[in-house]
Request: fold
Amino acid sequence: MEADSRKTPSGYLVDTFEGLKAEFTDFEELSRSEYNVVVRAKRYGRWWVLKGLLPEFAALESHQQMLRKEFEVMMSLQHPFVVQAFEIEQVEALGLCIVMEYVDGPTLGDWLETQPAVAARRRIADCLIEAVGYAHINGVVHRDLKPSNVIVTGNGSGVKLIDFGLADTVSHAVLKQPAGTPGYMSPEQMEQFSPDVRNDIYSLGIVLREMDLGRYYKKVIARCLASVDHRYATVDDLRRGITAATTWRHRWLAALAAIGLLALAVGLWWITAKSPRPVSTADTEALRVELAAQQSSQKALSDSLARLASENDRLRDAVDKQQQEREQERRQELEHSRQRLDQAIARGRHAVDLAAARSGLTAHLDTLSDASRLDARLLERANKAVKQAALDYMLSIKRDFAPDELEAIRKEMETYINAVHIKWVAKINSL
Reply:
């Protein structure tokens, strides 16, 4: 006699349950960096990610402040494509830690190594762009966008943007300093202290280039990697650039299809117009031949249009390449000009240092034990000597630099002379 399934009791196939502990257990290190350690741990029966400080930095107030700032930044973001932080607390054996959701999935870099389809790569790119745009809308600049800081979730259905350790906002007034990963950070980010969304747009362009999204994204990526004044100003501008590029492609395909349909309609009309009477077998064969000829003509036309589209793509790529080369040349010229200025300033400072040494003031100050014994005339002569050395140097390079470059060098020399004078005064005051 069969058992009545409706009367069969339901239940777990185990006799005991895992304890739902309030403290973290089952620690497993996931990664570590210069200052931080990231571990996976279990609490209340689920996995969490803890980000703390390495033991040698755990007691330093400056590094604790960095961790708190990261937590504050993350708490301002609540989005499906951004990793979520829940609290910051003291964890036994780890110290102060940010408690975050655990995200299961490969990094974007590892996922790309599986060679996913172009459609999947574009879908993930759209998700990443949305995450970055959301952060910017909320006043957060990530400043460390790279494949290892993006987790691909749901077998390629979404992303999680992680690691806000270098992120910054306009509202924060602490820990303002250049930051990023070489190869992904924008050129100006190396010297920039204030957050700028265009820094992220540059890094996003590098990531999109590595994702190999197709030729229609090349112009968009080139704009992301342009100089800061010519780069997309916002993520919305970037989205519009992608829309414009892909819309142009869709219009070409629609035009080709419309032309093909028009050619087919004209062919059928022409055949019908030439056959007003009932057709015989011979006429049917002739019509079939004419239709085949029309179809062949249509295919030739479509092939021709496809070749034109391909040639247009080639020309667009050539123009883009020329623009990139010109931009690269311009950057090289700017870098060469900056190096020339740096070298000129260094030589000018050396000339001032020589004049200061020859004046004998430094040696005189080293022999004094009382400021009242200072030879004021020697101090005056030393000041005149360094100023004259700077003036003579400026005259010697006058023909080698443009007026704006000379003005920049002059200001640097003036600042350096003031620094030398301040150093002397400090020495005198210490006597």
